């Protein structure tokens, strides 16, 4: 199992553009898995990715075009 990278509550809050209190609330509710390591909570990248997948509204559409966007009916 590869070593995971960990982020602080502040790192996650900055990345998602939410308040640190919001991230702590998700942890408290058990929605976001975190590890309490002495100086504060740490969130593994795999746990953050799982949290984001659970909260997405729908999967991204598959891209068919050369620029990574869907083709618009053009051959």
What features would you describe in this structure?
- The structure is a single chain.
- The chain is an alpha+beta fold and 75 residues long.
- Helix content is 37%, strand content 12%.
- The protein contains three helices and three strands; from the N terminus they run βααββα.
- Strands 1-3-2 form a three-stranded antiparallel beta sheet.
- Helix 1 crosses helix 2 (20-29).
- The longest helix is centred in the N-terminal third of the chain and has 10 residues, at 20-29.
- It is elongated.
- It starts with 5 loop residues before the first strand and ends in a 21-residue tail after the last helix.
- The model has no long low-confidence stretch (mean pLDDT 86).
List the helices and strands and how they pair.
Blueprint: E1 6-8, H1 9-16, H2 20-29, E2 35-36, E3 41-44, H3 45-54
Antiparallel strand pairs: 1-3, 2-3
Quick rundown:
Helices cover 37% and strands 12% of the residues. With 75 residues, the protein is an alpha+beta fold.
What's the SSE pattern? EHHEEH
What is the overall pLDDT average? 86
Shape descriptor reads elongated
Structure classification? alpha+beta
Q: Can you give keywords for this protein?
A:
3 strands, 75 residues, elongated, 12% strand, 37% helix, three-stranded antiparallel beta sheet, alpha+beta
């Amino acid at each position: 199992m590869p070593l995971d990278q960990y982020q602080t509550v502040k790192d996650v809050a900055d990345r998602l553009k939410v308040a640190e209190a919001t991230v702590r609330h998700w942890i408290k509710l058990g929605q976001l898995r975190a590890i309490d390591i002495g100086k504060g909570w740490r969130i593994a990248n795999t746990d953050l990715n799982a949290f984001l997948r659970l909260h997405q509204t729908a999967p991204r559409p598959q891209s068919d075009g050369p620029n990574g966007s869907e083709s618009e009916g053009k051959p």
